[in-house]
Design a protein that fits this description.
It is a single chain. By secondary structure, this protein is an alpha+beta fold. It is globular and about 70 Å long. It comes from Haliangium ochraceum (strain DSM 14365 / JCM 11303 / SMP-2). This is Putative lipoprotein.
């Protein structure tokens, strides 16, 4: 099974199986561009106002059938509602991430043809590919309750209210009770904060050389490292390596030559330049971009670090525990408060209606989010993370949340006698820090929460006062070791 994805984001590439993902604006709905990369910037608007889940009938049809072509064919009885409602662009975005969460790359993708055709043209065809494989059974049969729980948590973690591209790491257990695997090394992020490709990782129009070139850098060989902020770092050439170019950037993303994020570079690394020195950035994370001496060269230099960790494991890069997301976003009977209705009429008109109101009304009464205890303004942080003001067709506004915020994961929720989450390191992997068996206020116990880890506490929200974090923990030891 390919590992999980992450928050409404894009291309942080993690080498090997990984629960690592990156938030990023979707490029083309339904299309996965890179293997083991989750393009998952699911706009909060697409969670709150999409027509696929926007009415009880459509949601019922969605979760009562397999994720396969016939059940999204508007010309067939079993797909009449969902097939029509996918005409909504927000529904197509939601479907993109739903399929990525549920199905794997080896599962048959879902192909949908828009029933509303432009005169003289064929209907638009969209193919939705799987990636995380959290519920591959959904490809051939209706999903189980456990499946909907996992996929719901996955969808909630991947929403992003600010339309930015941010990498996150998922921790949790799959349907078999096995831990989501963590990557042994993390490839450099190839998309900027706006979700646009960083030019340096694109192909060069002609063969170019030198470390100032903004094309032709290796995607697979450029990796992320960690260090102690403020330390003078030295990256040395690994013995026997090929001569090539090197560039060091702040954070887990790559950068172009003129970028303010560039820390150092070398034209002939492992040649005349045997080492690169730089000061460890304040976040304690850096990316080392590598490339051949000429852009067409396949061989690249390799490096070793004098301190810190390079290449760093996923658990070392993403060591800020954000919180846990759990519940069921997709079961119609649990979505008892019709605060928003979205659907597509028989003529192809997209209709969105919301009930006016304030106070962060949850879209679904059975979707929950809790935050790690080290966020000093945790409830306000989570409110910024999963709530937004939406406007319908009649300019009616409502402040809606994708889930109920329940407080600290590590403490008792109001009106309950137990901690929100019974375990602070669940599953079969010791040290990965995932919350387990989380209880809502009804009280219902949810066995498959997904815990999100960040590179920095302020990665996902814009107000620095809301993301103050009490400490930055050391990299977990033995995070990939079974109990």
């Amino acid at each position: 099974m390919k590992s999980l994805l992450a928050l409404l984001s894009l291309p942080l590439a993690c080498a090997g199986l990984s629960a690592c993902v990156e938030l990023d604006a979707p490029i083309e709905t339904g299309v996965v561009e890179q293997e083991q990369i989750m393009l998952n910037q699911l706009a909060l608007q697409a969670v709150l106002l999409n027509a696929l889940t926007g009415t009880p009938d459509s949601l019922t049809e969605l979760v009562s059938n397999p994720l396969s072509d016939d059940y999204f064919d508007a010309d067939l009885p079993q797909g009449a509602i969902t097939g029509q409602n996918l005409h909504d662009p927000l529904a197509q975005t939601f479907m993109t991430y739903l399929v990525r969460c549920a199905l794997s790359e080896t599962d048959t993708p879902v192909t949908w043809t828009d029933p509303f055709k432009v005169e003289g043209e064929e209907g638009k065809v969209v193919v939705f590919h799987g990636q995380a494989g959290l519920c591959s059974d959904w490809a051939t049969q209706a999903p189980s309750g456990a499946c909907l729980e996992l996929v719901s948590a996955c969808l909630l973690t991947t929403e992003n209210a600010f339309d930015t591209s941010v990498a996150i790491s998922h921790r949790g257990i799959d349907l078999n009770g096995d831990a989501l695997p963590l990557a042994a090394q993390v490839e450099v992020g190839r998309f900027d904060i706006d979700g646009q490709p960083i030019p340096s990782f694109e192909d060069c129009p002609s063969d170019e050389n030198g470390a100032t070139r903004d094309c032709g850098w290796s995607k697979e060989d450029s990796l992320v490292g960690t260090c102690h902020p403020g330390d003078l770092m030295e990256l040395s050439c690994q013995q026997g390596s090929s001569i090539g170019v090197a560039r060091v950037c702040k954070g887990y993303r790559g950068c172009d030559d003129a970028s303010l994020e560039r820390l150092a570079s070398a034209d002939e690394f492992c040649g005349n330049d045997t080492e690169i020195t730089f000061t460890c950035p304040s976040h304690g994370t850096y990316s080392l971009m590598l490339g051949g001496e000429y852009s067409d060269d396949l061989d690249v230099p390799l490096a070793v670090a004098d301190s810190g960790s390079y290449p760093a494991a996923e658990a070392e890069v993403f060591d800020i525990r954000e919180g846990a997301f759990f519940g069921d976003l997709l079961t119609p009977s649990l979505n008892s408060t019709p605060v928003a209705l979205s659907y597509v009429t028989n003529t192809g008109q997209i209709v969105r209606n919301v009930q006016a109101g304030t106070g962060g009304t949850p879209l679904n009464e059975s979707m929950w989010a809790c935050h790690d205890k080290h966020f000093t303004e945790g409830d306000a942080y989570m409110n910024e993370r999963i709530c937004a003001t939406v406007t319908d067709d009649q300019n009616v506004q409502a402040y809606l949340c994708a889930a109920r915020i329940i407080g600290q994961c590590n403490e008792k929720a109001e009106g309950t006698l137990t901690n929100v989450c019974a375990s602070f390191d669940a599953g079969s992997v010791k040290g990965d820090g995932d919350f387990g068996s989380c209880t809502d206020t009804t009280p219902t116990v949810w066995d498959r929460p997904i815990t999100v880890f960040l590179d920095h506490p302020c990665d996902l929200i814009e107000d620095p006062d809301l993301c103050a974090y009490g400490r930055r923990p050391p990299p977990p030891s033995g995070a990939n070791q079974p109990r």
